[in-house]
Amino acid sequence: MGPLIIWLRHFFVSKYGEKGATAIEYGLIVALIAVAIIIAVTALGEQLEVVFDYITTKLALPS
Q1: Euclidean distance between CA atoms 26 and 54, whole angstroms
Q2: Which long-range contacts link 42-46 to residues 24+ away (Cβ below 8 Å)?
Q3: pLDDT at 34
Q4: Looking at residue 48, what DSSP letter applies?
Q5: How many other CB atoms are there within 10 angstroms of residue 21's CB atom?
Q6: Residue 22 to residue 44: CA distance in whole angstroms
Q7: DSSP secondary structure code for residue 44 in this structure
Q8: pLDDT digits over 10-47, tens only?
Q9: What pLDDT is recorded for position 31?
Q10: Is the pLDDT of residue 58 over 80?
Q11: Inter-residue contact 40 to 60 (CB < 8 Å)
């Protein structure tokens, strides 16, 4: 665990007990996963749009 997580765990265990600390840890994990998903979608969004546009033009019926 990183120093921030250790500090937060100590803070919440002393203030709210073990259950409060565990809930905060799960909340931090969920928040980090959400940030990772947002970054991945943002980074790959443009590239995926190009790929789908290419596929669409190749599948389009000739007029």
Answers
A1: 41
A2: none
A3: 93
A4: H
A5: 18
A6: 33
A7: H
A8: 776 666 666 666 777 888 889 999 999 999 888 888 88
A9: 92
A10: yes
A11: no
